[in-house]
Specification:
This protein is 0% helix and 31% strand. The protein has 215 residues and is mostly beta strands. Strands 1, 2, 3, 5, 6, 8, 10 and 12 form an eight-stranded mixed β-sheet that branches. It is elongated and about 65 Å long.
Length: 215
Amino acid sequence: MLLIVTSSTSTRAADIDDEFVFGILKYKITSENPKTVTLVKYDGDEPSGELVIPATVTYEGNSYSVTAIGDKVFQYCTTLTSVTIPKSVTSIGNYAFQFCANLPFVTIPEGVTSIGESAFYYCSGLISVTIPEGVTSIGRNAFYDVKHIINKSKCTDGRPWGALLENGTIVGDFVYEDDTKVKLLVYIGKGGEVTIPKGVTSIGNIAFSNCTRLT
């Protein structure tokens, strides 16, 4: 049988879980149909300044869509000042940006549906976060220590997301453990004089943490 070679180059078929570097970031293949990858780490030195995560990356001659930011990818990247997340991303992993203390602005694109546990934990420099309507899950402590901004973000039924919670009942300036409203978990108001509502029988460990404007 005659074998005709039409090209002097070839590429092997990629495997699920293959990892590769594109630019300064490392990715892991999560699917071949459709072709998708998760961002798992940066390559080499810690990224600093403004970082743009691409929507698509190339490996072995194939184009892959970046659909997720993995766990702990940018944890402790204290010199990051800006991150652009592409619209292709649907999930942000646990601890993904934890302790990125100098990151002032984050825009989470419309495609994202879940934000992992402690994803922006102690990102104390955050002054603006945009959370799209499509987000249906926010992990516990996702925005811990950035409580002063959470009222600007709304979940799908119109309530502001609780910065310290995965679930909870929000009434006015308070987040309760559930609909009984007997355990007060978090105060999310602007400060001043605060009266604990009638019916509350317990107050959570860090309900008024960092509430510097309380009088």
